[in-house]
Amino acid sequence: MKRIIHGILAIAALACAVQLTAQTAPSAPAAASSPAALSADEIVGKYVAAIGGKEAISQVKSITTESSVSVMGNEVPNTTVTVDGVGYKSETEFNGQKIVQCYTDKGGWMVNPMAGSSDPTPVPDEQYKANKSNIYVGGALYDYAAKGSKIESIGKDGDAYKIKLTTKDNAESTYLIDPTTFLVKSLTAKGDMQGQEVEVTTKLSDYRKTEVGFLMPYAVDIDFGGQFALSIAVKKVELNKTIDPAVFEMPKAAPAAAPAQ
Question: Using one digit for the tens of pLDDT, what is the confidence trace for 168-186?
Fold first, then answer.
């Protein structure tokens, strides 16, 4: 059961798993020049163009998703809300209880009743540093330099480009980018599995066009170092829904019950 809970909580902890960046296929095939000649900045530039370009991304102020999470034969509902540059919140229903993870531009908090407490608690600092890019609609690669991150090309995996991103907090992740569409195929980063560091790989597929012309990955598969896996099927996506920023504020702990007389 602990593995199920850790897996569900990881949905909110992994940027590319639930930070479902709007993406759109390019209007023409990639240039005929040798793929090996492309620099990291050129590859990421093509990625940005493929997801709609800066003008389109800047028009998306919020993303709301409703999903079904499949984990070890269980199907549980998940909802995520992102307001660009402000906050990100994931809520998962499990056995009648709500598991919450939230990140803002200032910090993060979570509620995990499966761990024995229904009170909100701050997320560990390292976890926050690794996942605060969730609050950005464009994701970690978009406008990466302005966020203080660095990128480098580290070769290829088959035909796919490998781009390593290092944040200003030294959190590292590796992206595989399709050489034809320039959409992200997968993301690999370090994650926590019951206190043990594992390599977590998130695969994105089943891209569908939204009403404003963007593509969203409706299928997300996450593997925790071969020890555990889960799948996310997106059921509904809403763009630019009005979201009250107060939803990202950490609630106060419930008052202690009065002693029995």
Answer: 999 999 999 999 999 999 9
Q: Domain 2-248 adopts which CATH fold?
A: outer membrane lipoprotein receptor (LolB), chain A (2.50.20)
Counts for the chain of helices (H) and strands (E), in that order: 5, 13
Are the beta carbons of 103 and 249 closer than 8 angstroms? no
- CA-to-CA distance for 48 and 54, rounded, in angstroms? 7
Distance (Å, rounded) from C-alpha 238 to C-alpha 125?
Answer: 30
CB atoms within 10 A of CB 255: 6
What residue spans define the domains of the chain? 2-248
Exposure of 96 by Cβ count < 10 A (0-12 exposed, 13-18 middle, 19+ buried)?
Answer: exposed
Question: Cα separation of 217 and 203, whole Å?
Answer: 9
How many CA atoms are closer than 13 Å to the CA of 261, on its beta-carbon side? 0
Predicted structure pTM score: 0.82
